[in-house]
Amino acid sequence: MYYLIISSEENIVNIKSIKNNIQKLSDPRNTSSAQADELITATPLISMMMYSIHGNELSGTDASIQLAFQLAAGEDNETLELLDNVVTIIYPMENPDGRERFLSDVEQWKGNVPTDDTQSLPHWGTWPTGRTNHYHFDLNRDWFILSQPETRSRVSIMMEWFPQFVVDAHEMGSFSSFLFNPPREPINPYLDKKIQDWWNVFAKDQAAAMDKYGWSYYTREWLEDWFPGYGSSYPSFYGGVSILYEQARTAGLNVKRPEGRILTYAESVQHQYVSSIANLTTAAKNKSELMRTFYDIRKAGLTPYHPNGVKAYVFDVSENRSRIDSLMKVLEFQGVEIFQASEDFHVTKAKSYLDKKSTNKKFSERSYIIPLAQPHQALINAVLDFDTRLKTSFLKTERESLLKGNGSELYEVTSWSLPLAFAVDAYESYSLPSVKMERASFEKEEGKLVNPSPQYGYLIEYKDDNVIKFLKDLLEADAKVHSAKKEFKVENREYDNGTLLLRLEDNSKNIEETLTRIARKHSIEVIGVNTALAQSGADLGGGEFNLLEKPKAGFLVGQRSSIYNFGELWYLLDNGIGLKTSMLYLDNLGLYDLRKYNVLILPSSWGNLKDTFTKSVTGKLKTWIEEGGTLIAIGSSISVIADSSIAISNVKTRRDNLKKLNNYYKEVAENIAAQSVLIDSVKIWESASPQLTSVEPVIKIDEKEESERDRSYIKFMPQGSILNITLNDEHWLSNGVSKNLPVFYSSSYSFYGLNPAEVVGRLESPDKLRLSGLLWQEAQHRLAYASYLTRERLGRGQIISFADVPFFRAQFHGTARLFLNAIFLGPGMGASQAVEF
């Protein structure tokens, strides 16, 4: 990614020294307040001007060129003063793939007479539009997740320069005007009050600059600063002041506004440019004060602060080391200081995100410790806090808006906690652990074969996330891999269900060489065993091991598919796992030969897909499933295939299932009871008459009352909360995943799978349901015990349904593992494939 650094000639000559001074200023442990004053006096302020993170928001990039020209060529006193006091980093195009895609649309659909009709194709673009990057990620939600290379480029610059002033320039709806800071509530509680004060200073000067031209603008309204992952919020958590621009969009053309006035593209560029100059001028005038704010915020981080008294976050590394390491690397990339314990230790008061109370917890050697007392404290709290809570005053505003039928005041999700999203074994510690520790290092574990030349075969535990890539490579090498349906013990070692088995008799003579190569590549331990006889559980040569099939996967996508959900899953399979996939256009589904595929993925949709599933298309898809296919339906797409006119699936929405809801709740109660069976042998063998018991539903509803209530309650459904599910840990879909798992939920739907559907993952009881984020009691009522993950047999194939997106923003690795199980285990474990001859 390209960026430009512009300042005075003297500053450019001394640029390395300036960067070194900023690094010193960023760490108050090594720089006293007096030394900071000297550095501030001797060093120019660093600003970073970022434009067009959404590729179809064109004006910012062109304004950046005008800004660069003015700073490079301007000889007026104002520009020269700005150059003396500020080193400006210009990041002209944050999303080149999206911009190129959108400009291609504009060129494709633009005529000799340009249209100013915002409904016209040149203004909209075609699916998937240019807003997103290559993998269809919204890059302005990726700042602390760092899943995309564009994000890592920007954040690496920020960690190198720590700009004390940042602009993030966007576009918005064509009929709006121009928006800038300050925002309204909710504002993230870990965002320093000093930053909020600066917003007003910049707003005053920016307003004056726009008033000179009589331009319209506004602040607040829909703009909030709750989510820390925007370009206009993220820098504030290391001590920089950041400002958002939102310019009315013209798509590089003209727009006819409701009042009849024509807004030109040149005007939209000029608004961005004038604002940029105004803000940079304010930054230059307040150079010393802004740099002092930066230093003071980072110095305040040396005193640990958390509303619940947390002093450190501790991560146990006993299982799924690769996932925990990937989270630690994400944090370290952003400057967070991470330590590892040199020995086992105890924390007397530690609380996980699943616990209501703290307990005495033992941690193993090499566990990770992140103390709050460090310069990056605000960022640590912002992204690791298990349950950041909205102010009561805002909750009142939000509820009033919902009750009045005005919709939510929230612009973003209400929870994003990285420990929950990654589903790692994380704890809040209310004291800094008393253990010898050292800065963390992330050395790649060495894969190996133990007993490399066994008499019977090889076993691989199915716990670490790396095992999925290992399995993919094995299947592509035509290895014959089985998966255990039950736990077992062999040669004094216990193995969980899901353990992979390769029998020597099934595989080629060079299987040892193949395993060695792939195990080293993915840091996997392979155990050679000399016998098929188990000490307990299933023998290795029996029927409790299913042969896995190489997945041949395709996405069913079209104009109404969610580009985000499709992009997340495509990125996971393509970039994360390296699995070859096909993209099949939904409208052409009737034309395709589906026999090529054994897995089809139907992402969540933004509109009703029912008209796509004509009678013939539905019949074709149903036949494909019945002949051994695995259909994976995500989110709102479930409601389409379960619709009475299509009826491929029996998983129903709440409104469609009210008549059978009590039956569903009784099945839940029976499943819960089955997990704690007690046997009274006297009653069985000696009782003269049967003493029968019945299980009551976990919830009882009146259908008529519930129908009326449900229409009202639906408005309270979550807008991005993290909820708790319980998994059937004996089912193959949950292999390698803990029994309780945080899931992202942001949907008005709740789904219910009645027999014969298998409910593999269900949302928890009301008292255990919410883990993080806002969940109104009405939503709690609608979601408690609902189905999250289901599996239905249809002929020789199956339908697997996820109630919401499993890899939201490439952040939720626990539910991503469930999705990968559906892909890699599904064709062999849940579908029946023909045996070739």
TrEMBL record:
**Which residue intervals define the domain Peptidase M14 in the entry?**
52-146
GO terms of molecular function: metallocarboxypeptidase activity; zinc ion binding
- CDD domains tied to this protein: A4_beta-galactosidase_middle_domain (cd03143), M14-like (cd06238)
Checking Gene3D superfamilies in the record gives:
Zn peptidases
InterPro entries given in the database record: Class_I_gatase-like (IPR029062), Peptidase_M14 (IPR000834)
Q: Name one GO biological process term.
A: proteolysis
Its protein name is Peptidase M14 domain-containing protein
Organism per entry = hydrocarbon metagenome
